[in-house]
Design brief:
Blueprint: H1 3-12, E1 16-18, E2 30-32, H2 34-53, E3 58-61, H3 70-74, H4 77-80, E4 82-87, E5 94-96, E6 105-108, E7 116-119, E8 147-150, E9 154-156, E10 166-168, H5 174-179, H6 181-188, E11 194-203, E12 218-228, E13 233-234, E14 237-238, H7 239-257, E15 265-269, E16 281-289, E17 292-303, H8 305-314, E18 320-322, E19 327-329, E20 332-339, H9 340-351, E21 352-357, E22 360-365, E23 376-380, H10 386-399, E24 405-407, H11 413-422, E25 427-431, H12 433-436, E26 437-438, E27 443-444, E28 448-453, E29 459-463, H13 467-475, H14 480-485
Parallel strand pairs: 3-11, 23-24, 23-25
Antiparallel strand pairs: 1-2, 4-5, 4-8, 6-7, 9-10, 11-12, 12-20, 13-14, 15-16, 16-17, 17-20, 18-19, 21-22, 25-28, 26-27, 28-29
Helix pairs in contact: 2-9
This protein binds adenosine-5'-triphosphate.
C-alpha cells in the first residue's frame, strides 16, 4: 500500500482536501472534509473518554494557543527548539540534517551508463557500494554545513510589530499544562499521582513537512502530563520509572483497542545522545506507515525540569505538599504525547483493505465502530416506491438521534454498499418491498429491514421496532456473530 492510494481515497470520499486548493494549494496544509472531521473528532473523543473520563486520576484542560512569551524562554524552546538544516548548493533543496538518511537518494553511479537511479533510504548503492554524500534530491549538489533553525512561528500581539510584542504560536500543548499546574492542583484538590490532559493545535515551522498529514506545520496534539511523586517507590522502584512503563503499555493497548494491528506497532527507545535535554528516558510508539516505521507518539519522562524552570522564571512556587513526608516536592512528569492527525493517518492506513469479492475489487475501511465517521447508512432498495423511500427517511431520522446516520439513494444497492464500505460505515440498513408491502396487491409489509455487516457482508432481517436495540448492541461491543446470530445470519 502506498501513500498515494490513501491520499486519493481521502480526496475522493471527502476525508481530507488540500488547503486552498482553488488557489493552487497551500504547501503541506490540509483541510478535513465532511468525513474527515467526523473521524478526527471520533479519535479525539475516544482518547478523551479513555484518558480523562474513565480514569479517576486525570482531569482535562484547554489552554490558549498564545501564551506569555517568557513561557517559551523558560521551557527552553527559544534556545533549543530547533532542527539542523542543510541546503543543496546546486538545486537549493532544503533538508533536515538529522533525517537525511530517512529519505531515498538519487545516485549517478560511476559503474553504469545512464545511471540516475534512486537508492533506498539509508542504504548503499548496490553497484558501486557508495554511501550518499551529496544532495539526495538532485544527486549532484554539495550540502551546506548544518545550521540550527528554530521551529517556532513568531507573531506579534497588538498592532505594532515590535520586539516587545513578539510572541509565538505554541509548538506543543504541554506548556499550557505546566503553567496551570498550581491552578489545577488547588482548584481540584488533587493528590499525586494525577494527570492533566489536553487536546489542541500546535504549530511548528517544519523544515521538511510532507508525507500527507504525517508532518505538517499546523497539527493537533493529544497530550497528557502525568505527575508523580519522585520520593515514592512502587515495589522498590522509583515511581516515575514504573509509571513510565505503565503509560507505554497503556498507550500501546489503546492503539490496539481501536483496531491497529499489533504487528504494525513497535516501541523504540531513544538512545542517550538522542534524548531531549530534559528527558530521563523517552520511548516512541512507532507505526509502520507507508513511508516506513515512524513516530506515532512519544512518551517521555520529563522529570521535574518544566515545573522547576517555570518556578524559576515566574518566581512562583510550583510544588506539591507531600502530607506523608511533610515536605514540598516538585513532581516528576511522564508525558504521553500523541498527534491526532498522525493517529488518524495510522488508523486509516491500517483499516484500508482491498479484497476480491466475486471477481470484483472491493475497497473497505475496517475502522473500529467508535471511529467510523458514519455508523449507519439507510438505503432504499427501490427509489421509485414512495413508501420505501418514506420509511427509509423515517428510520434515518430515528437513528440519527443516537448515531451519525446517512440516507443514500443515488445508485443501485450494490454500488451503495461499496461506497459505504470504502468509507468504513459498519452497518447498512436496507428497506425493500417486503418491508412496506404492496397496497395494490393487498400485501401487508413485514416491517422488517435488512442489516448488512461491513466486514463479513452478511445480512440479517430485523423488525424496525428492534433496530435501535440491535444496532446499539452491535455498535457498543457486541460481535456480529453473537448479535446477528439471534436473527439468522444470511449471505
Ligand atoms: P518528529 O521527530 O517526527 O519531528 P517529535 O519527536 O518532534 O516528532 P514530539 O515533539 O514528541 O514530536 O510530538 C509529539 C507528537 O506530536 C508526535 O509523536 C506526532 O504524533 C505529533 N507531531 C509532532 N510534530 C508533528 C508535525 N509536524 N505534524 C504532525 N504531527 C506532529
Amino acid at each position: 500500500m502506498n501513500m498515494d492510494t490513501i491520499v486519493s481515497l481521502c480526496k475522493r470520499r471527502g476525508f481530507i482536501f488540500q488547503s486552498s486548493e482553488i488557489y493552487g494549494g497551500a504547501g503541506s496544509c490540509w483541510d478535513y472534509g465532511p468525513l474527515g472531521v467526523e473521524l478526527k473528532n471520533n479519535i479525539k473523543r475516544v482518547w478523551w473518554r479513555d484518558t480523562v473520563h474513565l480514569r479517576p486520576d486525570m482531569v482535562g484542560l484547554d489552554a490558549s494557543i498564545l501564551m506569555h512569551p517568557t513561557v517559551w524562554k523558560a521551557s527552553g524552546h527559544v534556545d533549543h527548539f530547533s532542527d539542523p538544516m542543510v541546503d543543496c548548493r546546486a538545486c537549493r533543496h532544503r533538508f533536515r540534517a538529522d533525517k537525511l538518511d530517512e529519505t531515498p537518494w538519487v545516485h549517478f553511479c560511476p559503474t553504469k551508463t545512464d545511471a540516475r537511479f534512486e537508492v533506498p533510504a539509508g542504504e548503499r548503492c548496490r553497484h558501486c557500494g557508495a554511501r550518499r554524500t551529496l544532495c539526495p534530491e538532485c544527486g549532484k549538489g554539495e550540502l551546506t554545513p548544518p545550521r540550527q533553525f528554530n521551529l517556532m512561528f513568531k507573531t506579534y500581539t497588538g498592532p505594532v510589530e515590535e520586539d516587545a510584542a513578539l510572541t509565538y504560536l505554541r509548538p506543543e500543548t504541554a506548556q499550557g499544562i505546566f503553567v496551570n499546574f498550581d491552578n489545577v492542583l488547588q482548584s481540584m484538590r488533587l493528590k499525586l499521582p494525577f494527570g492533566i490532559a489536553q487536546i489542541g493545535k500546535s504549530f511548528r515551522n517544519e523544515i521538511t513537512p510532507g508525507n500527507f498529514i504525517f508532518r505538517t506545520r499546523e497539527f493537533e496534539q493529544m497530550e497528557i502530563e502525568f505527575f508523580v511523586n519522585p520520593n515514592e517507590t512502587i515495589d522498590g522502584r522509583p515511581a516515575d520509572e514504573v509509571w513510565h512503563e505503565r503509560w507505554i503499555e497503556e498507550r500501546l493497548a489503546w492503539y490496539h483497542r481501536y483496531g491497529i494491528r499489533p504487528e504494525n506497532l513497535r516501541v523504540r527507545e531513544h538512545e542517550k545522545e538522542e534524548l531531549a535535554h530534559y528527558a530521563k528516558r523517552t520511548a516512541d510508539i512507532e507505526y509502520r506507515f507507508p513511508i516506513g516505521w515512524s513516530e506515532l507518539e512519544g512518551i517521555a519522562n520529563r522529570t521535574d525540569y518544566d515545573l522547576k524552570q517555570h518556578a524559576r522564571f515566574s518566581g512562583k512556587s510550583l510544588t506539591y505538599f507531600d502530607e506523608e513526608r511533610k515536605t514540598h516536592v516538585v513532581p516528576y512528569v511522564i508525558e504521553p504525547s500523541a498527534g491526532a492527525d498522525r493517529s488518524l493517518l495510522a488508523f486509516l492506513v491500517d483499516a484500508y483493505r482491498e479484497e476480491e469479492v466475486r471477481g470484483e475489487k472491493r475497497v473497505v475501511l475496517r475502522l473500529h465502530p467508535d471511529l467510523a465517521p458514519t455508523k449507519i447508512a439507510v438505503l432504499p432498495l427501490l427509489k421509485k416506491r414512495g413508501e420505501i423511500v418514506a420509511t427509509a427517511h423515517e428510520i434515518r431520522s430515528l437513528l440519527a438521534r443516537w448515531w451519525v446516520t446517512v440516507y443514500d439513494d443515488t445508485a443501485a444497492i450494490g454500488r451503495l454498499y461499496r461506497r459505504q464500505d470504502e468509507v468504513g460505515t459498519p452497518y447498512c440498513v436496507t428497506v425493500d418491498v417486503q418491508t412496506v408491502g404492496d397496497v395494490d396487491k393487498g400485501e401487508a409489509g413485514d416491517q422488517r429491514v435488512t442489516i448488512r455487516d461491513r466486514d463479513s457482508m452478511q445480512q440479517i432481517r430485523v423488525p424496525i421496532a428492534e433496530l435501535p436495540t440491535v444496532l446499539r448492541q452491535l455498535l457498543e461491543g457486541g460481535t456480529w456473530q453473537q448479535v446477528g446470530g439471534r436473527y439468522g445470519i444470511g449471505g
